[in-house]
Amino acid sequence: ADEAKTSTVTPEQVVQAIEKTFGVTQGERRNHTKGVCAVGEFVGIPAVAEPYSRSALFSGEKIPVVARFSLAGGNPHAPDTAKSPRGMALEFKLPAGGLQHMTMLNTPIFGAAQPQTFFDAIQAAQPDPTTGKPDPEKIKAFKASHPDSAAQGAFLASHNPPSSYANSSFWGIHTFKFINKADKTTLVRWQFVPKAGEKPLSDDMLKSAPTDFLEQTLIEQVKQAPAHWNMIVTIGVAGDVEDNPSIAWPDEREKINVGTLTITNAMPQKGADCEKVNYDPLVMSDGIAASNDPILRFRSPAYAISFAKRLSNQ
Ligand code: HEM
């Protein structure tokens, strides 16, 4: 066990472990396999955002967005009632071909401080050959030996999953840097807050809801009226955790509303715009930059491996 803790797991090994635990859906994402495409726009509030970031995202112009909503894990048939993370991935199409990605979850923190913990979690969830199910003893041992997984686990256990993607908050989780026109850097974290409010499944709905409802609910909701989220940025102060996505920042930090995301249309992922996007979270525009968070840095090569596989129909 000590050896495992100090060893350096590679993105290849993590993607292989995901494939072993969940199986492979040919030509599809290795993680967050089940999902739905959407499109819309983002309008920033320059008076609020520009003191912190010079990104063209916050110019106040309408920025086209290609979005994808998803369930965590590599199971393409995961039930929409599963108490697992939901994802929201955004590709903002900035003027002159510039891009900004935000690839978020509906939990404020992540279940791993380093890639090794994520790898160990995936391995612990591997189905036991005799039962076809994860071995509860292995999951227990994983939790006991990985305290950095506890906060996200507790959040997921105490919050029922959303009744609609349009009624869920999504967090960027990692610490990022905003850089303004005077080259001043501010540490930030962000959250997309649904204007329609958070509406989790009730305990009764959790038992009675069908396997698949999230995709159809979103498609039908946005046919009636667009769905909106405010982008709320938390301003960090000296000493706030910069490189550990498993630890939340104190609640009392200043929060600013820097713009609104509007989703105008949603559609099945096959053949739609989001299908062939690699939502690498390190694709960023001038004015927004990565921290040294080891999870954030690790995601980029892991997504590239999954993307290359699915594009070549593996
Ligand atoms: C070591 C940590 C992580 C690993 C190894 C990992 C791995 C992956 C992989 C392989 C994919 C599929 C990529 C593709 O084929 O396009 C994926 C998708 C995704 N991940 Fe992660 N991930 C990690 C952490 C995170 C974190 C911290 C977040 C949120 C802050 C996140 C949010 C998502 C979302 C939303 C998607 C779906 C993107 C889409 O719709 O295309 N992941 N992840």
From TrEMBL:
It comes from Beggiatoa leptomitoformis. InterPro entries: Catalase, Catalase_core, Catalase_sf, Catalase_SrpA-type_pred. GO terms for biological process: hydrogen peroxide catabolic process; response to hydrogen peroxide. This is Catalase-related peroxidase. GO terms for cellular component: cytoplasm. Its cofactor is heme. Belongs to the catalase family. Pfam families: Catalase (PF00199). Residues 1-314 form the Catalase core domain. It comes from the Bacteria. GO terms for molecular function: catalase activity; heme binding; metal ion binding. Its EC number is 1.11.1.-. Has an organic peroxide-dependent peroxidase activity. Keywords: Heme, Iron, Metal-binding, Oxidoreductase, Peroxidase, Signal. The active site is at residue 32. Heme binds at residue 303. SUPFAM superfamilies: Heme-dependent catalase-like.
